[in-house]
């Protein structure tokens, strides 16, 4: 049956959304504390560049599930690390 697998996928997606949401919100607060409204500083640009670098090699995954897992895991790590030194 397809339903249990779909349920597992939904649960994993919910867990990812909650974890990345929490990490993002925390990082946004740190970003605002550090940069305020400084011109030339954009949270999305800063984090997107780091996320792209972190997920660059995920394209070498052997299948869709490995690719999704790679991107998900590395995206979460980027947000949780919240490295603002590269902004």
Report on the architecture of this protein:
It is a single chain. The protein has 87 residues and is mainly alpha-helical. The protein has one domain. The protein contains three helices and no strands. The chain starts with a helix and ends in a 6-residue tail after the last helix.
What is the helix tally? Answer: 3
Total number of distinct structural domains:
1
Q: Mean pLDDT, rounded to whole units?
A: 85
| Terminus-to-terminus distance | 47 Å
Oligomer: single chain
Strand fraction equals under 5%
Helix content: over 70%
Low-confidence stretches: 1-7
Shape: flat
Which series of helices and strands comes N to C?
Answer: HHH
Number of strands: 0
Could you outline the blueprint of secondary structure elements for this entry?
Blueprint: H1 3-35, H2 43-55, H3 64-81
Helix pairs in contact: 1-3, 2-3
């Amino acid at each position: 049956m397809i339903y249990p697998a779909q349920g597992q996928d939904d649960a994993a997606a919910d867990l990812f959304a909650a974890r990345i949401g929490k990490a993002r919100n925390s990082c946004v607060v740190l970003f605002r504390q550090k940069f305020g409204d400084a011109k030339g500083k954009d949270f999305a640009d800063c984090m997107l560049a780091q996320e792209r670098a972190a997920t660059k090699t995920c394209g070498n995954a052997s299948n869709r599930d490995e690719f999704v897992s790679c991107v998900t895991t590395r995206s979460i790590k980027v947000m949780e690390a919240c490295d603002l030194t590269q902004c």
